[in-house]
Amino acid sequence: MINPYPYFEVKQKSLSFALYKLHRGVIDKHSGKLYTNMLDQLLDSTYSAMNAFGYGDVDIVIGEAGWPSQGDANDPFATMDNAISYNGNMIREILAGKGTPLMPNRRFETYIFALFNENLKPGPVAEKNWGLFWPNFAPVYNASVMRNGSQPAPTPAVPTGKQFCVPKLGVSDGQLQSNLDYACGNGVDCLPINLGGACFEPNNLRAHASFAMNSYYRTKGQTFNECNFGGTGQLTTVDPSYGNCHFL
């Protein structure tokens, strides 16, 4: 099982090559084979290394494959258009069973990363936006995997400096529940995280506490102290909103 990611290899001059767009291709100087996309190149690099050690007959499974649909301002490659192009073309190529120049007509068992966007995942914006779906199950974009051809949900706003209050990583369920109870008991409108509300899904304690903590922070003065919650809250410029769930 390998995780080939053209996104992590791409440069501006190789973007079309990575996205399966019109490209004159690259001739490998060792094999003389013509490569028209970067994924095939990465797969054959792995195959060549395996073959050199006598394991060329072992099947290769693509354990992760994908492209983020949004990134930070200094990441020009993590965009909706690029994600649609890469994932859509990659899926079509895999299903066609064309294989690669060194492994023609081979079909690869492939797992797309990721099924869902992870709005609470730490790190760069791109790390939160690999999913085909929002946490509320609405599609982020059409990657040719929807049976009914559903249209994509709107993209979230790029961070603009506005701050949001969310729980720190590693906060216990007990503390999350305490934060939730405190915020909802002190004037915060928690109807959106009740059953049937726009922010009820995903129905877990961390998601509900995040909404309540941010609403408390927003309505109580928006100072650091309003996001402290006994040392369990933190401020972020990444908007946790998703689908129809909008954080204040």
From TrEMBL:
Pfam families: Glyco_hydro_17 (PF00332), X8 (PF07983). GO terms for biological process: carbohydrate metabolic process. Residues 163-247 form the X8 domain. It catalyses: Hydrolysis of (1->3)-beta-D-glucosidic linkages in (1->3)-beta-D-glucans. Its EC number is 3.2.1.39. The keyword RNA-binding does not apply. Keywords: Disulfide bond, Glycosidase, Hydrolase, Signal. It comes from the Eukaryota. GO terms for molecular function: glucan endo-1,3-beta-D-glucosidase activity. InterPro entries: GH, Glyco_hydro_17, Glyco_hydro_17_plant, X8. The keyword Signal applies. Belongs to the glycosyl hydrolase 17 family. PANTHER family: GLUCAN ENDO-1,3-BETA-GLUCOSIDASE BG1-RELATED-RELATED. This is glucan endo-1,3-beta-D-glucosidase. It comes from Rubroshorea leprosula.
